[in-house]
Fold this protein.
Amino acid sequence: MKNETPNLPNLDDPLDELLRGADEYISDNGFTARVLTALPAGRRHSWRRFVMLSMAALVCVILVAWQLPAAIAMLNAIPRHWSAFQWQMLLTFLPMLTALVSLGWVVFALVNEEE
Amino acid sequence: MSFTDADLIARVLLREDQNAFGELVRRYQSPVRGFLAKMSNGDTHLADDLAQEAFLKVWKKLSTFRGEGKFSTWLFGIAHNEWRMHARGRKELALAELADQPPEPQQGEAASASRLRMDLAEAMKLLTAAERAAIVLCCQNGLSHEEAALALECPLGTVKTNLLRGKEKLRRCLCV
């Protein structure tokens, strides 16, 4: 426990008395209701977001799994046929790369769920 | 049955209980709105807008409240930040610091009469923002100097100095 400076009002000080007396209670007048209405949707929204992101992740995984054998075969073939290698061949990796980047983003979004 | 702040906070964190949060808002709306109204030189509409933003921020950031100090101290800190961001946005803070230099006390009977006419609310406007914040938190909301320093994010010595200077200026303006 920190040693705090006591802040006891000085009862003999007219200024302290004046300050204490000037602190009037402000009636709610619908303020709390306005705050509660303005609250973000909360868990319902988060749950929907979670489902959407999970679906996106699933699609990404399927795409990666679908492209993976072809990508591995191509990577294995490159050293053996280096003379025939063309840079355009790298374009075939584009869907795979896109799916991987998307998957990374989805995982990042799921982990950082705080809005 | 009356719940403590800690009970209500736990309910909000565990179940996102809006009723518990509503109880917290009801409990603290008056001091927070009052504090912001004084910081905004009596502009109650602005104060209410800032207070609403502060409570929404509390709802979003409640999980970061570690419970080391009082909830009210943490809440006043958020409210003060809201006001500071608003003031910075409108460049009011810099202007306020320049313009809030209180006039030198006048001499003579006419001056005394005018001082007596000046009420506390008007006198508070003559303080700098930092002095006003220290006085409202310590003298009107019962925060200790340490708690006020925590809420205002400034050194303890600064709070004490602002409090003394502010009170001295008020005494001169109000002749008390």
